[in-house]
Amino acid sequence: MSGALPTIRIAVSACLIGEPVRYDGLEKSCAAVTGGLAALAELVPLCPEVGAGMPVPREAVDLFGAANAPRMVGVVTGEDWTARANAWIEAALDRCAALGVAGFVLKARSPSCGVGTAALYEAPGASSSRTDGLLAGAIRRRFPHLPLVEDEGLDVEAFVARVRAAARG
Ligand code: SF4
């Protein structure tokens, strides 16, 4: 019998593995993900903004309104992407469930991916508070038992240990 640990699948923000999906078109891969986590887990990339149909590059989006139901709106045009982003996210989380994804590493401060670090505005130009991005909030509601962290300060070994512990129940 082999003593090898079973393969785990981790969903990650697609920009963290260098996919060309960011609003500004820049490459912003994360070494802890590409060099550390990728050696220990199979990565499943997710980008809710490109998934919703946004181009690259694109105008930035921000979150407005209530923390429990924020709207994602283009900062220049005011285009409301909320319904399209949320529809893509629900389908993506269905795929994650089918794949047995066991944890999530998302990009800090993004209005889609930030885990408690996305800016939420009451109105354009108003002061902001912090909340979950649309994807992070949906993950928290749907998979409350699975580890969910951001890239910044990621301790790969500790995160993978948490994932394996959660998977054992
Ligand atoms: S932070 Fe999230 S929404 Fe933004 S580019 Fe990365 S994966 Fe896409």
Total domain count: 1
What helical percentage do the residues reach? 25-40%
**What is the rounded Rg?**
16 Å
Shape: globular
Element pattern in H and E: EHEHEEHEEEHEH
Ligand roster: iron/sulfur cluster
Task: Give me the side-by-side strand order of the main sheet.
Answer: 2-1-5-8
Give the termini distance in whole angstroms.
Answer: 23 Å
Ranges where pLDDT stays below 50 over 5 or more residues in a row are none
Number of helices: 5
Q: Briefly note the structural class of the backbone.
A: alpha/beta
- Classify the beta-strand content into a percent band: 15-25%
Q: How would a textbook summarize the main sheet?
A: 4 strands, parallel
Number of strands: 8
Oligomeric form:
single chain
What do the pLDDT scores average to?
96
What characteristics describe this protein?
four-stranded parallel sheet; 5 helices; 8 strands; binds iron/sulfur cluster
Helix-strand layout with pairing:
Blueprint: E1 9-13, H1 31-40, E2 42-46, H2 48-51, E3 61-64, E4 71-74, H3 82-99, E5 103-106, E6 118-121, E7 128-131, H4 134-142, E8 148-150, H5 156-168
Parallel strand pairs: 1-2, 1-5, 3-6, 5-8
Antiparallel strand pairs: 3-4, 6-7
